[in-house]
């Protein structure tokens, strides 16, 4: 396959519509495949990959069908090739340059996270409004003033942003990011952000996730109590 044909294939994979649930699982498959590559594994069956990802084989094959990849019966999947396909579908063949807005504990932790680089994300800017924080070094980054956000975004070529700020300032900062050309935003702010249709916002609400965990934990406890009660009645 020529270089241009390979580029066309990767671009085609990246623009296919993939259902949200399948998209989330593709990230898990890619992590499992990356581990296999690190262990020197060249081929993997659907059963083996499904087990590594914690799903069943039919679901995995359905998810991978959105990439046009079905493997070879009796042979399985080429680990390296499948990794490339999934990375292309997730947009990871592009150069993602991330700006983090908010240099509090969470923002600093994200800025220093070593796993971003291996997944195609480079943190290029870190902002804060606190004069005592501005100018401090976090890893190799120096915290920039929020007042200079637009110029720093342009200088660094940032094309993705993370908002780690209080709710009351999140919308204003989001508007400034969008006006600067940022169309992909991950928000940890506990507020629903209003953005144009062409801007993608993913909201991470830790309190909501903990509430969902509490619900499932409660169900498990009730089910366990009921099972013990039935066992006592049976005896």
From TrEMBL:
It is found in: Cytoplasm. Keywords: Cytoplasm, DNA-binding, NAD, Repressor, Transcription, Transcription regulation. NAD(+) binds at residues 102-107. The keyword Transit peptide does not apply. Residues 28-67 bind DNA. It comes from the Bacteria. The keyword Transcription regulation applies. Gene3D superfamilies: NAD(P)-binding Rossmann-like Domain (3.40.50.720), Winged helix-like DNA-binding domain superfamily/Winged helix DNA-binding domain (1.10.10.10). Residues 91-192 form the CoA-binding domain. InterPro entries: CoA-bd, NAD(P)-bd_dom_sf, Rex_actinobacterial-type, Rex_DNA-bd_C_dom, Tscrpt_rep_Rex, WH-like_DNA-bd_sf, WH_DNA-bd_sf. Belongs to the transcriptional regulatory Rex family. Modulates transcription in response to changes in cellular NADH/NAD(+) redox state. Homodimer. HAMAP family: Rex (MF_01131). This is Redox-sensing transcriptional repressor Rex. The lineage of its organism: Bacteria, Bacillati, Actinomycetota, Actinomycetes, Micrococcales.
């Amino acid at each position: 396959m020529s270089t241009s044909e390979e580029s066309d294939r990767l671009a085609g994979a990246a623009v296919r519509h993939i259902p949200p649930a399948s998209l989330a699982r593709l990230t898990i498959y890619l992590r499992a495949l990356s581990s296999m590559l690190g262990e020197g594994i060249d081929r993997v069956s659907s059963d083996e990959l499904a087990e590594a990802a914690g799903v069943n084989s039919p679901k995995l094959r359905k998810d991978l069908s959105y990439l046009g990849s079905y493997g070879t019966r009796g042979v399985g999947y080429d680990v390296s090739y499948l990794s490339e396909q999934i990375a292309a579908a997730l947009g990871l063949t592009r150069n993602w340059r991330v700006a983090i807005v908010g240099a509090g504990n969470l923002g600093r932790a994200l800025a220093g996270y070593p796993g971003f680089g291996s997944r195609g994300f480079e943190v290029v800017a870190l902002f804060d409004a606190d004069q005592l924080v501005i100018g401090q070094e976090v890893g190799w980054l120096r915290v920039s003033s929020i007042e200079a956000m637009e110029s720093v975004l342009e200088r660094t070529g940032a094309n993705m942003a993370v908002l780690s700020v209080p709710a009351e300032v999140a919308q204003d900062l989001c508007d400034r990011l969008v006006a600067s050309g940022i169309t992909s935003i991950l928000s940890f702010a506990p507020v629903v952000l209003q953005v144009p249709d062409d801007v993608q916002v993913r909201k991470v609400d830790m309190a909501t996730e903990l509430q969902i965990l509490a619900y499932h934990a409660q169900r498990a406890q009730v089910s366990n109590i009921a099972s013990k009660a039935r066992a006592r009645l049976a005896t």
